[in-house]
Inverse folding.
């Protein structure tokens, strides 16, 4: 497996001879440098590294030019773009790591990046070996590290300023290693997963400046011990609740370290925290998607009608601002010969740029749809291989959101990451801020990698249907409200500001009138023995809205807005529920209780969810999944609250009166499939 490094090839000899910082005379293979063998970083598997933009390059800058630092070219090395991370397994043989670190001259003297080289031992403990920053136009930093005794060398390169010019080079990067007995293995790059993880939660997080931040840490093994070090000023570690919390006032890139110890091994992870006022999705987006009600019949007239209706009903003032074209806005099934994306000119006679401008003048944003394959789900042309082209055209049209599907694409996770990152990179360089909405449906676990590809929300479920509980799933891709909820509710460790888990569009307001959401009615009627079906009940629609709000899922409508029933408008315009969803701390609710109430032939299953809010309140949702009316007692202790008196405010209640609750708790009665929601504050 490692024969490549034990045999000096002509390419390697050329590489060694042309590294200006190395000896001019290439020594014998067994004593290449300081009596040790050499393993160039550029000859390792760079696909396993993390790169903030583009693709990590061997012996080239991130833009594909010769590696050049302070006017000097280097034939060997690695070009990357902050934020970046490289993890190398040292295999007990590596003794030193050497390189020249700097910002490539291709930036014209612009750009900066921080660096942190950390050694992790066999016990999982980490030691910072070197850290600092580099800036464009400055002399590169000479890195010469003693890595003897470490299991891994972790190279972290956070952004040091504007990410537009963080073109980082590791010139002449190489490991010196020994193979005294002929049985040693050279160092090699590993992915984060191969390194092993003690955490089952996000390690790339975001926050608005001056807003309460909370990072709930979940270890892979529940009994593991968790500790945190290196916290930025303003944050504190709450060991009893396994969470980092506090407020950071200043914008910037921050890091801290998490150590997880279980009975088998110790793991350490670096958390990267971005605090910025300019996050593209600080709270879940709200809006409307066209496919469920119009499918391929969407056009300019209908889009404008949706905008005018949203204004008429006051939905725009509530936050429903993204109006999204789904599949088949396209001109055709095959991409035009010039390679440029084009729209159906009969459906959009004034053009998409005109439509975007019209919506913008009304205070709305335009969303568009494409797919990470040659064709979309409905067989229009997709964007695979044309990511840069399409992203630039979307920007020219004035698009604000891209919903990016995965029909027709390979099933593997790594290929999905590659395809989504290609589009994420293209959007970043399109010249316009476009919200990247990953629609991968969940099989490849986008909550674990979506943020690294540029996404700020991702579908975690298959397509929703206008059913409360759809168990048949005959074609493998249709789910009801409860399946969407169940698929999303456990993903709270990966949710947060600028990284939201999306349980798909809501069915509220459809009443069986949708197209894709309603075409399963015949099979459902056969399965249930019913003779007619008109969608979910109002109680079920209200429950879906409540649960989606609690889970910080995007609130997306999918029915015809031109005529809204009063009982539907009451649901989607509840300002207190919307405020819970739009809370700037961005937390996803966690299920803290899942229990059976009652006995006999019709017991009821209750689930209790808790969502922390920025002002210190908590939102509590009580879901009755049973088929009859039942009651459960909710105590402050159940919600993770300290002993004391609390005011429970009924968010859906008519009277809106607060109830004072102590240790004995509050008796909550819920009808079948009802979700009661309370905002709880300490008195």
């Amino acid at each position: 497996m490692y024969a490549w490094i034990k045999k000096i090839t002509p390419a390697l000899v050329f590489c060694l001879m042309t590294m200006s910082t190395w000896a001019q005379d290439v020594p014998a293979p067994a004593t290449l440098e300081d009596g040790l063998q050499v393993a160039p970083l550029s000859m390792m598997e760079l696909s396993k590294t993390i790169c903030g933009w583009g693709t990590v390059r061997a012996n080239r800058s991130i833009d594909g030019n010769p590696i050049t630092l302070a006017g000097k070219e280097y034939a060997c090395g690695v070009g990357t773009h902050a934020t970046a991370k490289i993890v190398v397994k040292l295999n007990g043989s590596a003794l030193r790591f050497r390189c020249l670190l700097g910002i490539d001259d291709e930036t014209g003297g612009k750009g900066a990046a921080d660096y942190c080289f950390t050694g992790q031992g066999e016990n999982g403990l980490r030691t910072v070996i070197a850290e600092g920053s580099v800036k464009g136009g400055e002399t590169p930093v000479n890195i010469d590290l003693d890595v003897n005794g470490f299991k891994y060398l972790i190279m972290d390169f956070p952004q040091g300023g504007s990410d537009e010019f963080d073109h980082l080079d590791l010139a002449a990067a190489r490991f010196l290693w020994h193979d005294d007995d002929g049985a040693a293995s050279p160092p090699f790059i590993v992915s984060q997963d191969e390194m092993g993880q003690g955490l089952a939660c996000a390690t790339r997080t975001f926050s608005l400046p001056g807003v309460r931040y909370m990072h709930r840490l979940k270890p892979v093994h529940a009994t593991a011990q968790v500790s945190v070090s290196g916290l930025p000023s303003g944050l504190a570690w709450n060991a009893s609740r396994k969470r980092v919390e506090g407020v950071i006032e200043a914008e910037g890139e921050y890091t801290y370290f998490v150590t997880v110890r279980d009975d088998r091994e110790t793991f350490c992870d670096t958390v990267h925290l971005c605090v910025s006022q300019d996050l593209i999705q600080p709270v879940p987006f709200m809006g409307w998607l066209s496919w469920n009600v119009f499918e391929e019949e969407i056009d300019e007239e209908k889009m404008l009608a949706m905008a005018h209706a949203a204004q008429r009903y006051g939905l725009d003032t509530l936050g429903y601002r993204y109006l999204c074209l789904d599949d088949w806005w396209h001109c055709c099934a095959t991409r035009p010969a010039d390679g440029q994306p084009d729209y159906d000119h009969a459906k959009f006679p004034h053009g998409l740029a005109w439509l975007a401008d019209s919506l913008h003048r009304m205070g709305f944003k335009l969303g568009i749809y494409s797919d990470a394959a040659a064709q979309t789900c409905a067989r229009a042309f997709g964007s695979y291989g044309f990511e840069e082209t399409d992203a630039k055209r979307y920007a020219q049209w004035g698009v604000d959101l891209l919903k990016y599907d995965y029909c027709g694409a390979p099933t593997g996770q790594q290929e999905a990451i590659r395809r989504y990152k290609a589009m994420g990179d293209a959007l970043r360089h399109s010249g316009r801020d476009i919200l990247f909405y990953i629609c991968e449906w969940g099989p490849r676990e986008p909550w674990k990698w979506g943020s690294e590809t540029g996404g700020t929300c991702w579908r975690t479920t298959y397509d929703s249907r206008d059913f409360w509980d759809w168990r048949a799933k005959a074609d493998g891709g249709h789910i009801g409200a409860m399946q969407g909820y169940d698929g999303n509710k456990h993903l709270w460790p990966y949710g947060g500001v600028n990284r939201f888990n999306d349980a798909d569009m809501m069915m509220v307001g459809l009443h069986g009138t949708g197209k894709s959401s309603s075409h399963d009615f015949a099979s459902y009627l056969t399965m249930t023995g019913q003779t007619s079906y008109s969608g979910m009940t109002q109680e079920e629609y209200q429950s879906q809205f409540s649960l989606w709000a609690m889970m910080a899922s995007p609130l997306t409508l999918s029915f015809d807005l031109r005529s809204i029933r009063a009982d539907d408008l009451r649901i989607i315009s509840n300002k207190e529920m919307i405020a819970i969803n739009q809370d700037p701390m961005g937390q996803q609710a966690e299920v803290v209780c899942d229990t059976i109430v009652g006995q006999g032939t019709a017991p009821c299953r209750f689930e209790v969810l808790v969502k922390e809010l920025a002002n210190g309140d908590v939102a509590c949702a009580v879901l009755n999944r049973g088929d009859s009316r039942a009651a459960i007692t909710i105590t402050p202790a159940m919600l993770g609250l300290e002993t004391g008196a609390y005011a429970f405010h009924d968010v859906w209640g008519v009277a809106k009166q607060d109830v004072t609750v102590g240790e004995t708790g509050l008796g909550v009665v819920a009808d079948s499939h009802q979700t009661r929601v309370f905002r709880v504050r300490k008195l």
